[in-house]
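Need a sequence for this fold. Nothing fancy.
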């Protein structure tokens, strides 16, 4: 009997994985597959299947799944275990409000420590965004731009929380950016923000960031009124 294809069949493993790298390799591989849609929402992440796929014991698989759950890419469902989380969450407004708090503080701490090289890197991400036509890549570049501005914040736990929020947004943008029509508006916001950051205008930069995130929240909230939790337009 022919084996029925599953989403996990889309993941290709080349050669054995060193034991000391197993957790990180599994986490990164599954994260990329979730972000690019190879593992759609609702896909069950069974530990034994994954252990067999990667050729490892269940321990690094369990640790990788915990990391992905902490990044809001997986949910634990009763009687089903870990499953890939929905692309769109019902609490998007609350998520953006939390992002405003976390990212504002990260930016405030980071700006005094940013170098000319950091500013140039952020500018390069904007220029790449302005020329990019692949919406999945735009989501990735958006995340990298923001992290370039926040990256010098000395509070590593804060940065981890910030990056988790940006990971969640990247996944959302991959599947919805075209329908939302955010392209040029987003780059105008990024340009204004980077200009203020480069001048070390901390409070003005934070205010501009908050306005940027507020506009994003408003657009996404409006958009979500017309889609279901899998990202499909409702009748």
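Here you go.
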């Amino acid at each position: 009997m022919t084996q029925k294809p599953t989403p996990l069949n889309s993941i290709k493993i080349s050669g054995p994985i060193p034991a000391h790298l197993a957790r990180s390799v599994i986490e990164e591989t599954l994260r990329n597959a979730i972000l690019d849609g190879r593992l759609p929402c609702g896909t069950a992440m069974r530990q034994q299947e994954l252990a067999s796929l990667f050729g490892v014991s269940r321990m690094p698989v369990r640790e990788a799944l915990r990391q992905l759950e902490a990044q809001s890419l997986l949910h634990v469902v009763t009687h089903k275990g870990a499953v890939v989380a929905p692309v769109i969450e019902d609490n998007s407004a609350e998520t953006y409000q939390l992002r405003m708090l976390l990212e504002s503080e990260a930016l405030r701490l980071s700006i005094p420590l940013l170098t000319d090289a950091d500013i140039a890197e952020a500018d390069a991400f904007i220029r790449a965004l302005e020329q990019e036509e692949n919406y999945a890549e735009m989501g990735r570049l958006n995340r990298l731009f923001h992290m370039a501005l926040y990256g010098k914040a000395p509070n590593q736990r804060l940065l981890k929380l910030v990056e988790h929020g940006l990971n969640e947004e990247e996944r959302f943008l991959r599947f919805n950016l075209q329908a939302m029509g955010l392209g040029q508006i987003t780059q105008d916001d990024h340009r204004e923000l980077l200009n203020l950051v480069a001048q070390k205008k901390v409070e003005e930069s934070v205010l501009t960031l908050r306005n940027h995130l507020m506009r994003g929240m408003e657009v996404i909230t409006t958009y979500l009124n017309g889609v279901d939790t899998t990202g499909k337009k409702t009748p």
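For context: The first helix runs from residue 22 to 35.
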